[in-house]
Design goal:
Layout (H helix, E strand, L loop, with lengths): L7 H10 L8 H11 L3 E4 L6 H12 L3 E5 L6 H4 L1 E3 L1 H10 L6 H8 L5 E3 L1 H7 L5 E5 L6 H13 L1 E4 L3 E4 L5 E6 L7 H6 L1 E4 L5 H11 L5 H16 L8 H14 L6 H7 L7 H20 L4
Parallel strand pairs: 1-8, 1-9, 2-5, 5-8
Antiparallel strand pairs: 3-4, 6-7
The chain binds adenosine-5'-triphosphate and magnesium ion (MG).
């Protein structure tokens, strides 16, 4: 279905059907984004489903996902468009020597010689797409300013070619891990979605969706432990991604319970800093040991 969704409920159901379990305000903000045509800024810790939300929305809306992965030093040539210099050069060489420069110039600055990068692809697409601008906080403020213009006007000006206006309106998601504060100007133009670690029941559903083979009791224990671990003061608390990995690891190892020994063996799947490992072993591992020694009545 490529029409716009009719209600928040529709979006919640649609996302669920494609394997993304939206929490709290996720469905609401996604719905508003499709109806108001405003970009969404999705922020939150690593591994809580920011990128996945864009993928799921594209699947649900039956739209192509156009992805711009941001990094330090990303510039317009890689994000918007650049001229295909090689092709231009070949064309100039192939041109007979009596052709006037004006003719050649008109020719080599045509659309045929343009390399469309993600932002332009999204704007120029005949079918509406979902545009994911991933990890916008990795770029610098100049890039953000360029993006602002694009997100408010949905058009690109190419000096040699003129203006390219959007034929269709993309649904735009920008994600950020908050490594730097984004400008007020950008935030003002976006809807805001804060994705946090889910509550216990929600995370259990997500884990079970990704690993239905895992025994229900083990899955619950896994999520409970993850939540305990998150409460410790760690450099990098485990995310949903780690919960899912851990579930898969336990299935592979054929674990029937998460006892002290299993936990010790597998905790490097969820904790990935040397000092965090020590903290977790001391605090959670010991708790499990005590529980093992005292089987439930
Ligand atoms: N609500 C959800 N429903 C189903 N799966 C989810 C959900 N949230 C997260 N996941 C799963 O968690 C994993 C991590 O998600 P994702 O890569 O989107 O995280 P992220 O927030 O973009 O992290 P990073 O900031 O590191 O890029 C994915 O495998 C995704 O399928
Ligand atoms: Mg991501």
């Amino acid at each position: 279905m490529s029409e716009n969704p009719g209600s928040v409920q529709d979006v919640a159901q649609g996302l669920t059907e494609v394997g993304y379990l939206p929490g709290g305000s996720t469905a609401l903000v996604s719905y508003l984004a499709t109806r108001l045509g405003k970009p969404v800024l999705v922020e939150g810790p690593a591994g809580v489903g920011k990128t996945e939300l864009a993928k799921a929305l594209a699947k649900y809306l039956d739209r192509t996902l156009v992805r711009l992965q941001c990094y330090e030093g990303l510039d317009e040539a890689k994000a918007l468009y650049e001229w295909n210099y090689r092709k231009q050069l070949l064309r100039i060489q192939a041109e007979s020597s009596d052709a006037g420069w004006q003719d050649v110039q008109d020719d080599i600055f045509g659309e045929e010689f343009l390399l469309a990068r993600p932002l332009m692809t999204a704007i120029a697409s005949a079918e509406p797409v979902v545009l994911l601008i991933d990890e916008i906080d990795k770029t610098d403020q100049e890039f953000e300013a360029m993006l602002l213009e694009l997100l408010s006007d949905f058009q690109i000006s190419i000096p040699e070619l003129g203006r390219i206006e959007a034929k269709t309106h993309p649904v735009v998601l920008l994600t950020s891990n908050n490594t730097r504060e984004l400008t007020e100007a950008l935030k003002r133009r976006c809807l805001y979605l804060w994705l946090d670690y889910p509550d216990l029941e929600h995370e259990l559903e997500i884990v079970r969706l990704h690993s239905p083979e895992l025994d229900e009791k083990v899955a619950r224990k896994l999520v409970e432990i993850i939540h305990q671990v998150r409460e410790l003061d760690l450099k990098k608390p485990p995310s949903i991604a780690e919960s899912i990995d851990w579930a898969r690891a336990l299935i592979l190892l054929g674990a029937e319970d998460i006892d002290q020994a299993t936990f010790k063996e597998t905790m490097s799947v969820i904790v990935k800093h040397r000092t965090d490992l020590d903290t977790v072993a001391a605090r959670v591992g010991v708790k499990l040991e005590a529980a093992d020694a005292q089987p439930a009545a």
